[in-house]
Amino acid sequence: MRIGIMGGTFNPIHYGHLVTAEVVRDKFKLDKVIFVPSYRTPYKGRRDLISSSHRYKMAKLAIENNGYFSVSNIEIKRRGKSYTRDTMKEFKKKFGKETKLFFITGADAIAQMPKWKKAKELPTLCEFIAASRPGFKLRKLPPRYERHTRLIEVPALAISSTDIRKRLKRGETIKYLLPEKVERYIYQHRLYL
Ligand code: ATP
Ligand code: MG
User: Fold this and answer.
1) CA 179 to CA 146: how far, in whole Å?
2) What is the pLDDT of residue 56?
3) CB proximity list for 94: less than 8 A, separation 6 or greater
């Protein structure tokens, strides 16, 4: 089995995440992609961060119509700060040696990787797939990581959760930036106001 893990805050999930996961799945012939909403993202401020339960439910709504996609609550259950290394270790244990794990990230996120907790262990657990993201140029990674990293071009999507939250605050439209069900969920629960 070849499994992609897409980690993120998903605050909220949007088409940038979904397109990236789908293009990577197809190109790298993955059997499935698991979205993993973080509980606490260690290197990110908590301003505007809504509860993990809302973020998890929106991710579930977003992936409903893709049979290859699922959402895991592994980081939410673990509580505390969500470290990718802990998550990959748990998945490795769950799926066994025969399964190859791919960690999917945007080029902006992978640039931070060498600073992550116990990052040096990561290349022994998975391969990395870094999706190019508008506005971010991938800087050179240390060789230890570079050897295990594949770059992929994803159709330019300048969508970000930050922009969506800003739009909501200003009362601007978010239509077509994320799935309709997620949009409806946000309005129903008056999120990000
Ligand atoms: P925020 O603006 O709050 O940081 P975000 O849109 O960057 O949110 P995250 O939850 O931080 O979303 O991202 C999860 C993962 O998805 C990261 O690896 C990030 O690089 C990647 N990603 C996010 N948006 C895009 C996009 N438009 N295209 C490609 N990758 C993306
Ligand atoms: Mg981000």
Assistant:
1) 34
2) 98
3) none
The domain in which residue 114 lies consists of 2-158
* CATH classification of the domain holding 136: 3.40.50.620
Q: What is the number of domains present in the chain?
A: 1
Percent of the chain with pLDDT over 70: 100
Tokens (6 digits) for 162: 């930050």
Q: Is the CB of 161 under 6 A from ligand 1?
A: yes
Q: Is the pTM above the cut of 0.85? A: yes
Note the pLDDT of residue 131.
Answer: 92
Q: Is residue 17 in a domain?
A: yes
Q: Strands 69-71 and 32-37: what pairing? A: parallel
Q: List all residues 6 or more positions away from 184 whose beta carbon is below 8 Å from its beta carbon.
A: none
The answer to whether residue 56 sits within a structural domain is yes
Q: Using only the alpha carbons of the chain, give its radius of gyration.
A: 16
Q: Is residue 32 part of a domain?
A: yes
Does residue 182 lie in a domain region? no
Position 64 confidence tier, pLDDT thresholds 50, 70, 90: very high
pLDDT for 68 beyond 90 = yes
Q: Measured in angstroms, how far is the CA atom of residue 117 from the centroid of ligand 1?
A: 20
* Cα 189 to middle of ligand 1, angstroms: 22
